[in-house]
């Protein structure tokens, strides 16, 4: 019986045309796709991506079975969809470009040494603890690699050294700066009374008020760490990467704040493993 060697021969022929640059090209594309997936996972965008993939799959199936009318409609829909993608994925595209703009040349110089980071985290925790005890609502945004000048422009510029007493004065009830967010860069509070974008995530608990939704909304668009004190319950929460952890103790809050001021930085996935407060 003759042995069919067509397939192995074709496979060998294909492999013979692949060079080192082709392998490098494939690896680069694979890394880019993985980074895109890593950026989109656990966000609203991943649901949209799944919907697009389903639509493309249905289009291919209809073309395979020669369903001309449905194929024509789906092709037109896909064309319109790609035109609308920059609008639908505007927050994600902005975040991706901000990540792309980061690097060693543009690296943040706001990181502190161990002693300075410990002191800043201690002062913030001391202020948050007292705010929680008096049920005074507060929003503290800790800037990391991504600059927040656009957020600072919505508030009042301050440029003051961080201390618990200073932060408590900023959040005095019925003052102009009380309802807005305060932005911290390194060991300085650079702006207060800032406006933050609200999240559009509809799966969040109805217990979360405007402050919590604003914290999540900003964390979806940048790498900032946002501390929230509830005005209704005095609960301490922290938001990062579109996630929020609630009912934190002051001691655990200080532990989470430390890496925000020094390298290496922490990530919400590591926080979730050690605290079951994500919603």
Based on the model shown, name its key terms:
279 residues, 53% helix, seven-stranded mixed sheet, YojJ-like (1, 7 strands, 11 helices, alpha+beta, 2 domains
Would you kindly provide a written description of the structure presented here, covering whatever features stand out?
With 279 residues, this protein is α+β, with helices and mostly antiparallel strands. The chain has two domains: 6-100, no CATH class; 114-274, YojJ-like (1. It is 53% helix and 13% strand. It has helices at 6-16, 20-40, 44-64, 68-88, 90-100, 114-133, 149-152, 164-170, 210-221, 250-261, 268-274; strands spanning 138-142, 156-161, 181-185, 188-194, 225-229, 236-240, 243-245. Strands 2-4-3-1-5-6-7 form a seven-stranded mixed sheet, with helices on both faces. β5 (225-229) and β6 form a beta hairpin. α3 (44-64) packs antiparallel against α4, α6 packs across α8 and α6 packs antiparallel against α10. The termini are far apart. Mean pLDDT is 80; it is low at 104-109.
């Amino acid at each position: 019986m003759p042995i069919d060697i067509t397939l192995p021969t074709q496979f060998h022929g294909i492999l013979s045309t692949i060079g080192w640059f082709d392998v490098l090209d494939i690896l680069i594309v694979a890394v880019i796709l993985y980074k895109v997936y890593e950026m989109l996972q656990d966000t609203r965008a991943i649901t949209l991506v799944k919907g697009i993939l389903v639509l493309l799959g249905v289009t291919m199936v209809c073309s395979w079975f020669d369903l001309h009318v449905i194929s024509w409609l789906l092709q037109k829909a896909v064309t319109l969809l790609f035109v609308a993608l920059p609008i639908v994925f505007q927050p994600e595209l902005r975040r991706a470009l901000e990540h792309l703009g980061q690097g060693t040349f543009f690296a943040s110089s706001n990181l502190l040494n161990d002693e300075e980071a410990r002191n800043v985290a201690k002062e913030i925790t001391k202020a948050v603890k007292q705010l929680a005890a008096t049920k005074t609502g507060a929003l503290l945004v800790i800037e990391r690699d991504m600059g927040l000048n656009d957020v600072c422009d919505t508030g009042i510029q301050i440029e003051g050294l961080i201390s618990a007493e200073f932060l408590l004065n900023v959040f005095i009830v019925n003052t102009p700066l009380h309802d807005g967010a305060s932005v911290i860069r390194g060991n300085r509070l650079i702006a207060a009374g800032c406006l933050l974008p609200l999240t559009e995530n509809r799966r969040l608990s109805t217990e979360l008020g405007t402050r919590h939704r604003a914290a999540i909304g900003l964390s979806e668009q940048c790498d900032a760490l946002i501390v929230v004190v509830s005005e209704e319950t005095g609960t301490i929460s922290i938001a990062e990467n579109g996630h929020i952890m609630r009912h934190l103790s002051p001691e655990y809050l200080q532990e989470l704040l430390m890496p925000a001021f020094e390298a290496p930085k922490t990530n919400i996935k590591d926080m979730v493993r050690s605290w079951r407060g994500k919603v």
